[in-house]
């Protein structure tokens, strides 16, 4: 007799993570491959299972892939909250609609998102310059009353009894430029370090050289999960953009002073040369960002040389020259008013609005070529999310500037404060919140109406049980609340459209008047003037409160493991995709997890000749699908998928239609050996996959009962909980489906039952061919 064929069950946990002991239901587990960041575990009794294949006849070897430390490990990752706008704009890149023969439109879509990401970097660094250079070094250090309140700025004050060497305006600016320059350097360092730690894993198409990948989906391309060249190129461009922004903030004010009539000619010439160099550097940055995007048909291992590699060093050298130029002694130069930053913030807001509108036009064109009725917002999810990223950047920038200005000046009004546009943007926040409150009220009303309808559905689901009104309402409420996930496109659409319109109104108000809302309404009727003052004060307070809550949450997550776990859940959803639009976004954990799973599945099947079931819960099902796409066609035919609580269609299919749309999921169903999906009506994340085969039943089993028992029974003497998104293994259907999948993979299984015969909810065992 030949060697018995083995079967492997590879478990992949979902959002929030899990321990190998819980996944394998055994307190004794051992790591068989991997490291402290991500690893594969087995039961201690199964470590050498390959040497004893006969001991596992009829049952699989179980393994658990634990990847939770990729997103919610140590406390320092809570600081990634600062990178939230970058993460959101990176998501917009992957939300484009499906494209059929529109290669140029796809490239234009990616280009517009990359340019939007570049404006966010400039905005963040400009906000740091506004705080450090304008508010602190220019306004406060140049005002006697402010330096009296903040004595630590005394060595910068020109009004001190004995002004020091740093008291000249240009030298104060040069010294303060260390703060935004250090911020830019920190972003560069984090991007470089996280790439090496998380995303530098070679895909399976490296040394192993498997068969040609034949999956038509982009996630199956050899270079999809290895974008080293693009990330390095964007990192160089964004780092240079940040340093050039700092150089412009330092040197433009000095150059304007030198251009006055009778000014020193050498300094004037040098100032114009530096301004020309800044413009040339900005053009070079934009050109680098506009170059070719991702190369997914092969791993992009080579790095760009020449201009791309030298761009950050050139920008740093220009910053040093500008600091030396600004620090030159200029008799009569005093710091008065604000630095010329209003035009910068206004220009950034205008460019961001135009980019979002253009992105919406391209997305609409792509959606029309291949309409997808399930796509979020009819293909406009990407532009809407890009608008939210810009709004987040504006709120964070304005919040920092407003809080620092209040801290420096208090209520004495001795400083001019931040640019007027930031105050206008703060003033529209109450209006945005009112719109969101009205929308939340509407959604709550719809949920209440749906709960009333679900009461009757619950009674039909448990027809023979004695009715308990409170129990029925709890189950109906869980079902109704689970449907709120499907309302997310409406919330995003309303928020982004409101933000775009009110942001445009704020930009027009700031550019037209050059004053704050209360100042612009000074001559208006008392009611209008009072409303403007109220909106300005309330918006400033809200934006400051939001920023303080943001920082407090980050600090709490640094110390509190439970809060850190919550932040890890956010990153589980937001950082699945590679960094294609912004290099400073939090690292993509899938560029480590997907190669891990692919290597494990491919090497095990080839070494043992066995077959395996990859079992994924929640986000683990997305990783499982992505890993299956990366396998060669021959390896995929030896793999079965078991997904439960899966957001593959409900979230990823709707928001990322180009990669998880109906065609992509149908192709996965055809390429793997078999696939079954479990979900509950009470699950707010998981849902049906909605894929049917030509000669076999669909992927989805009908919705599982939740709770398993309505009241107390002999099998459930205590009240059964409403499980929602968790503990799918507690349902007997999970063991049935797993057993059926393993039976399908084993040689010599019986012929399948007719396709029309389906598994019943009562627990009838399915035939192997039915899965």
TrEMBL record:
Please give the InterPro entries that the UniProt record associates with this protein.
AB_hydrolase_fold (IPR029058)
Alphabetically sorted, this entry's keywords are: Membrane, Transmembrane, Transmembrane helix
In this chain, the stretch annotated as Disordered covers 745-771
Question: Membrane-spanning regions, if any?
Answer: 78-96, 108-128, 173-190, 236-257, 269-290, 311-328, 348-367, 379-401, 421-444, 490-514, 534-554
Q: What is this protein called?
A: Integral membrane protein
């Amino acid at each position: 007799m030949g060697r018995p064929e083995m079967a492997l069950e590879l478990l992949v946990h979902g959002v929030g993570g899990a321990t190998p002991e819980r996944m394998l239901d055994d307190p004794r587990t051992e790591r068989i491959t991997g490291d402290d960041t991500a690893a594969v575990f087995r039961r201690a009794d199964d470590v050498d299972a390959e040497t004893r294949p006969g001991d596992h006849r009829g049952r699989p070897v179980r393994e658990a892939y634990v990847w939770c430390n990729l997103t919610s490990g140590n406390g320092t990752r809570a600081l990634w909250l600062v990178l939230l706008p970058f993460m959101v704009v990176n998501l917009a890149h992957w939300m484009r609609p499906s494209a059929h023969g529109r290669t140029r439109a796809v490239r234009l879509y990616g280009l517009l998102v990359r340019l939007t990401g570049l404006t966010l970097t400039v905005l963040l660094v400009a906000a740091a310059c506004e705080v450090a250079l304008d508010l602190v070094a220019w306004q406060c250090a140049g005002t006697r009353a402010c330096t009296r309140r903040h004595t630590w700025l005394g060595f910068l004050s020109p009004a001190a009894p004995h002004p020091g060497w740093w008291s000249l305006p240009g030298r104060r600016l040069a010294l303060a430029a260390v703060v935004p320059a250090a911020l830019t350097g920190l972003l560069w360092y984090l991007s470089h370090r996280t790439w090496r730690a998380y995303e530098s894993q070679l895909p399976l198409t490296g040394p192993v050289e498997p068969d040609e990948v034949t999956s038509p989906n982009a996630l199956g391309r050899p270079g999809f999960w290895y974008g080293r060249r693009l990330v390095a190129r964007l990192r160089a461009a964004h780092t240079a953009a940040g340093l050039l922004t700092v150089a412009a903030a330092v040197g433009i004010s000095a150059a304007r002073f030198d251009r006055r009539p009778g000014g020193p000619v050498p300094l004037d010439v040098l100032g114009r040369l530096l301004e020309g160099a800044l413009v040339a550097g900005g053009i070079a940055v934009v050109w680098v960002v506009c170059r070719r995007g991702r190369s997914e048909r092969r791993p992009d291992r080579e790095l760009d040389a020449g201009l791309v590699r030298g761009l950050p060093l050139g920008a740093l050298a220009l910053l040093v020259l500008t600091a030396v130029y600004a620090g030159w002694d200029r008799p009569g130069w005093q710091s008065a008013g604000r630095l010329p930053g209003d035009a910068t913030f206004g220009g950034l807001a205008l460019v961001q609005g135009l980019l979002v509108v253009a992105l919406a036009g391209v997305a609409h064109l792509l959606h029309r070529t291949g309409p997808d009725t399930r796509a979020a917002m009819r293909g406009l999810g990407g532009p809407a999310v890009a608008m939210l990223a810009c709004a987040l950047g504006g709120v964070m920038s304005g919040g920092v500037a407003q809080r620092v200005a209040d801290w420096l000046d208090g209520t004495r009004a001795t400083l001019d404060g931040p640019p007027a546009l930031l105050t206008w943007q703060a003033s529209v926040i109450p209006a945005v919140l009112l719109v969101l409150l009205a929308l939340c009220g509407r959604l709550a009303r719809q949920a209440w109406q749906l709960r009333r309808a679900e009461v009757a559905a619950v009674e039909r689901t448990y027809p023979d049980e004695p009715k308990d009104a409170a129990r029925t309402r709890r189950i109906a409420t869980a079902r109704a609340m689970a449907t709120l996930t499907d309302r997310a496109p409406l919330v995003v659409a309303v928020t982004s459209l409101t933000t775009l319109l009110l942001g445009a109104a704020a930009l027009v108000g700031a550019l037209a008047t050059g004053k704050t809302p209360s100042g612009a309404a000074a001559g208006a009727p008392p009611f209008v003037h009072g409303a403007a003052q109220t909106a300005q004060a309330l918006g400033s307070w809200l934006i400051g409160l939001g920023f303080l809550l943001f920082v407090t949450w980050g600090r709490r997550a640094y110390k509190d493991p439970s809060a850190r776990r919550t932040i890890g859940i956010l990153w589980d959803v937001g950082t699945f995709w590679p960094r294609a639009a912004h290099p400073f976004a939090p690292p993509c954990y899938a560029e480590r997890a997907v190669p891990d799973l692919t290597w494990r599945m491919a090497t095990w099947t080839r070494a043992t000749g066995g077959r395996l079931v990859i079992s994924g819960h929640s986000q683990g099902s997305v990783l499982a699908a992505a890993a299956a796409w990366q396998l060669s066609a021959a390896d995929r035919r030896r793999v079965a998928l078991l997904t439960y609580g899966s957001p593959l269609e409900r979230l990823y299919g709707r928001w990322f239609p180009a990669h998880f749309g109906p065609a992509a999921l149908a192709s996965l169903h055809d390429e793997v050996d078999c696939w079954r999906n479990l979900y509950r009506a009470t699950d707010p994340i998981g849902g049906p996959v909605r894929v049917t085969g030509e000669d076999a039943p669909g992927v989805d089993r009908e919705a599982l009962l939740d709770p398993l028992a309505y009241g107390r029974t002999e099998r459930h003497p205590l009240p059964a909980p409403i499980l929602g998104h968790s503990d799918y293994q507690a349902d007997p259907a999970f063991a049935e489906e797993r057993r059926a999948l393993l039976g399908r993979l084993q040689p010599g299984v019986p012929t399948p039952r007719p396709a029309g015969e389906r598994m019943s909810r009562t627990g009838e065992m399915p035939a192997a061919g039915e899965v």
